Structures are given as structure tokens and as C-alpha cells.
Amino acid sequence: MREAHQENITVTPTQPIERTTGSTEPLEPELWEAPLPHSVAVADLPSASAGLPAQQPSRTAGGWRRFGTIGLVLFFLFGKLKYLGLILQIGKFKTFFSMIVSIWAYAMFWGWSFAAGFVALIFIHEMGHVIALRLMGVPASAPMFIPFVGAHIVMKKMPKNAFVEAVGAYGGPLLGTLGAIGCVGIGMATGNLFWYALASSGFLLNLFNLLPISPLDGGRIIGVISPKLWVLGLLGAGVLFYLTWSPIIALILLLGSYQIYKSFKECKTERARYYDVSLAKRIGMGFAFLFLLAVTSIGMLVMQGPLQGI
To answer: Are 23 and 34 in contact (CB under 8 A)?
Structure first.
């Protein structure tokens, strides 16, 4: 039986990318997006280098990178956001406070301006989840940020079916992609390559979260078509991990494998009720998913042009 308290995380590819180039689930708590995180706010993809400003490596930066990897492992072992969430959840200011902490963490690698812009894009992505869920009658919290992981939101009750869950998942990368397109517009108006780099990172952030594997947004979206598609997403993530050896991808593989196992262990009657969605809604969500996948992919490729000489 699905529980009423759920988290949506958005995963970011931030730290692991540097070696090659430079959401939502019932709360046990489990991971959904924001992105993030909900929480969306990405992993060893060769095209990511165009989205990040060049910076000379330092001994201190190397130490922080190692600390970031260790932090991811500890984060997973100590309860999937539970303890870190308690640390960052400072009264009613948890969104603002956790944003500041994330900006400070990313600034160690990319500088303050880019870090602030990147966190802003994660925030836009997360608010897409919040808005979509509330439009579907599911109350959701404000985002909370997790440095080097992303961000997450908390759904305060379960969606009534897989379609509502898919719409909530889709809202994040949809609004996040619009945010990246906005950066392209500012870059075209000003001629400042900073905005193209930020846009490239924004497209990457949302493209990564569209991978068709739970707990990422893409897994929640294609789940309304058939949860069996998660197996294909898991295989794809396995190939991606083999190519990158990213700890973020490893974490997603573990969580995705557990989600598939748990889904098929659920009561058949309950599972059938939750995924009882009309064919029209399934087809519509499938086309919407492919459309957003195409926009983010094309956005990544187009941004390679103005950033080619960096």
C-alpha cells in the first residue's frame, strides 16, 4: 500500500561530470526528481563541459571533490535525505538557507555567479513540480536543497493515480527547460557567453532528470505508460554507469532497482488500481515526454555552437 507522505528529488550531475568534462516516491523517505530536486536540483555526460565555466584545478578543490563523493555515500547510507534534511531544515527558512548553502558549495568549483544561476535553475525546476502537483490537487512543500545532489520537495498526500504522479513529475523539467530557454534569450540579447553556459547546464539538468528510471522524473512520467519500461531505463543507466563510473549514476541504479523490485511486490489489485489510466492519457503523456526529451537534447546541441571556443 502506498503511503501518503512522499518526496520528489531532482538530481544534479554537478560534481561527477568534472572527470570527463567539466521528483517522487512514497516517503520511507524515498527519492522522486527536484530535484531534485523533489527533489532533480546530473552525471558524467561528455556534453556537459560546454555548460560549465573553465576553472583551474586546485588542491583545495580536489579535496572538496573527494569530500563530495564521500558525502554522497554517507547521504545514501544514513536514510535518503532523512538526516541531512533535518540538519538543513531550519524553521520556515529551510528553502532560503539550503539555497545559500548550495550556492556556497557550487561556488567552490564554478564561482559565485555561475553557482547562483545554477541553483536558481534548480529552484525553477522544483517549483515546476510544486505548481503541477498543486494544480492536480496534491499539496506540496517548498523546495529544500541538498548540495551536490540537487533539491527535493515533499508531497503531503499521495497522488490518486499514476497519471497525477506523472503530471507532477513532468512539471519540473517543463518549467526547468523554460528557464534554460530564458537564459538563451538573455544570452542572445546581451551577447554574454555566461548565459549560454548557464543555459547549457540547465538543459543538461532537465535532460538528465528525464532518464526513464525511477526515482528520476522520467521514470515517474513513463510509469503511467507502463512500469515495465523502468527495466529499459535501468539497462540504460547501467550502460551510462559503465561509461562514466559516476557515483550519482550508481546511486540511481540502486534506488531504481529497489523501486522495480518493490513495485512488482505490491498487491496486484492495488497496483492495477493505481495504474488504471485511460489510453488517451497514456499516449498524451508519452508524446509530451518525447517532446521535452527532444527540446532538451536539441538545446544541449545548439549551445555547443556559441561555447565552442571556450
So the answer is: yes
* 30 DSSP assignment: -
Overall number of domains in the chain:
1
Burial of 86 (0-12, 13-18, 19+ CB in 10 A): exposed
Judged by average pLDDT, the poorest of 74-83, 149-158, 177-186, 231-240 is 74-83
Q: Which burial class, exposed, middle or buried, applies to 54 when counting CB atoms under 10 A from its CB (0-12, 13-18, 19+)?
A: exposed
Please count the CA atoms within 13 angstroms of the CA of 175 that sit on its side-chain side. Answer: 26
Please check whether residue 287 lies inside any domain of the structure.
Answer: yes
Query: Is 75 or 299 the better-scoring residue by pLDDT?
Result: 299
In-domain check, residue 309: no
This prediction has a pTM of: 0.72
Q: Is residue 310 part of a domain?
A: no
148-174: average pLDDT: 92
* Angle at CA of residue 36, ends 226 and 119, nearest 5°: 150
DSSP run (H or E) holding 223:
none
Residue 268: CA count within 13 A, CB half-sphere: 0
Residue 68: pLDDT band (50, 70, 90) is low
Q: What is the domain extent for residue 279? A: 6-303
